[in-house]
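Below is a filled-in request sheet from our internal design queue. Each sheet records the structural input a requester submitted and the sequence that came back. We keep these sheets so that new team members can see what a complete request looks like end to end.

REQUESTER: design group, bay 2
PRIORITY: normal
MODE: inverse folding
CHAIN LENGTH: 323
BACKBONE (tokenized):
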């Protein structure tokens, strides 16, 4: 990138605000416009300048366009990370800039809360027929068999089932794990899971209310972490995987079952999906950035939507420093 182009891109207060917003999470263009209180075409022009300068990058997903700061990528030029650090320092030194950034973050928090409330309402409404809804997308039996095969014969140790839903995954792997912690944000879902898992010894299974964005566990607490048809509900998949990495011991594994990238836009409104699946390159990058070493995924293509299974191993500190 040309230094002149880069600094010209930063010579605007709106673009500085956008960079600070993108420093915290990946956002849709419409979300950025809503926070800034500006029209989407105007915000799109600012975003175009930032992207042309190599400071941000866009990714289209259906009719939505998501943005992220290039400094959040493991492949970003060192100068991008330096600029991100400089903006943090600028917020600490410039009271007016800091006040504007804080106001933006409060607006963003309201938007996120609204989205999470919509997803929560969906979970509560459909708690008792969640298993049937899953069957609309793919064969549960085929996915479960493929997941068991992908995990192989290695012991699962302490297993964390994130977004346990009805508790089906915890039930399936209860014999292979030393202990299972089944986590869900929805109390309605936890009630369903508790009924399904009540035949298992209480010392083997624990149900916990919690959010995948802030897991209530110590670092390196689990040998295996599972996301089964959960990650597409994450507004920030990168943050969810970083938190999963935090609680996974070095050498432990993560298993993600989710849809391949698709264009079924109606799933956003009908089923509160924040992401329309994931392509392999995107998932590989997310896992690598979180500190996992992925292996080639497997696919089930017999359903209306393709289901992918991604397995990755938590890198040790030495491996992370080498990479």
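RETURNED SEQUENCE:
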């Amino acid at each position: 990138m040309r230094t002149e182009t880069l600094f010209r891109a930063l010579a605007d207060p709106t673009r500085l605000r956008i960079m600070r917003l993108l420093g915290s999470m990946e956002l849709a263009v419409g979300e950025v416009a809503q926070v800034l209180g500006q029209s989407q075409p105007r915000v799109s022009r600012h975003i175009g300048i930032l992207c042309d300068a190599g400071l941000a990058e866009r990714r289209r997903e259906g009719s939505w366009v998501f943005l992220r700061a290039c400094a959040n990528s493991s492949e970003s030029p060192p100068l991008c990370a330096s600029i991100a650090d400089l903006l943090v320092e600028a917020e600490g030194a410039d009271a007016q800039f800091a006040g504007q950034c804080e106001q933006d973050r409060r607006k963003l928090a309201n938007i996120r809360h609204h989205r999470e409330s919509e997803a929560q309402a969906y979970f509560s409404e459909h708690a008792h027929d969640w298993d049937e809804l899953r069957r609309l997308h793919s064969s549960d039996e085929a996915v479960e068999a493929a997941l068991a095969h992908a995990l192989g014969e290695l012991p699962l140790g302490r297993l964390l089932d994130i977004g346990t839903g009805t508790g089906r995954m915890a039930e399936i792997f209860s014999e292979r794990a030393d202990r299972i912690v089944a986590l869900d944000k929805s109390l309605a879902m936890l009630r369903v899971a508790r009924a399904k898992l009540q035949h298992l010894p209480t010392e083997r299974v624990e149900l916990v209310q919690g959010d995948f964005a802030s897991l209530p566990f110590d670092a390196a607490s689990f040998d295996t972490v599972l996301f089964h048809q959960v990650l597409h509900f994450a507004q920030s998949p990168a943050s969810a995987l970083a938190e999963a990495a935090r609680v996974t011991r070095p050498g432990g594994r993560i298993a993600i079952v989710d849809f391949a990238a698709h264009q079924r836009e109606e799933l956003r409104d009908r089923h509160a999906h924040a992401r329309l699946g994931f392509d392999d390159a995107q998932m590989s990058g997310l896992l690598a950035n979180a500190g996992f070493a992925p292996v080639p995924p497997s696919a089930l293509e017999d359903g209306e939507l393709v289901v992918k299974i991604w397995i990755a191993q938590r890198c040790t500190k030495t491996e992370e420093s080498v990479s």
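SHEET NOTES:
- The chain has a mean pLDDT of 87.
- The CA atoms of residues 86 and 213 lie 26 Å apart.
FILED BY: M.R.
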